[in-house]
């Protein structure tokens, strides 16, 4: 008795636009979603100035983010999957 494996054809998410705002990086994906993450989730980005963060470019047909000045590359599928270098630190907000 044989078995047949059905392969799912999933397209990896790619970015069509990237921008920074208040030390967050935002990515608009080809499927219409917009995701954002704090720069502090990556070692090199956490040490970058706001001006350096703003110099982000899309590379590899939207599958990577590149910061030339600080020599940092991050894959878009990696951020969509939640693969960050550093934990998310919730800031204490006093009311």
Give the overall pLDDT as a whole number. Answer: 88
Percent helix range: 10-25%
Level-2 CATH architecture of the domain at 15-80: 2-Layer Sandwich
**Which structural category fits the helices and strands?**
alpha+beta
Radius of gyration: 16 Å
CATH T-level fold name of the domain at 15-80: NE0471 N-terminal domain-like
Biggest β-sheet description: 3 strands, antiparallel
How does this structure look, described?
With about 100 residues, the chain is of the alpha+beta class. It has a domain at about 15-80: NE0471 N-terminal domain-like, CATH 3.30.2020.40. Helices cover about 15% and strands about 30% of the residues. The chain has helices at about 45, 50-55, 75-80, and strands at about 15-20, 25-30, 35-40, 55-60, 65, 70-75. The strands form two sheets. A three-stranded antiparallel β-sheet has the order 1-2-3. Strands 4-5-6 form a three-stranded antiparallel β-sheet. The N and C termini lie far apart (about 65 Å).
Give the arrangement of secondary structure elements.
Blueprint: E1 15-21, E2 24-29, E3 34-38, H1 43-47, H2 50-53, E4 57-59, E5 64-67, E6 72-75, H3 76-80
Antiparallel strand pairs: 1-2, 2-3, 4-5, 5-6
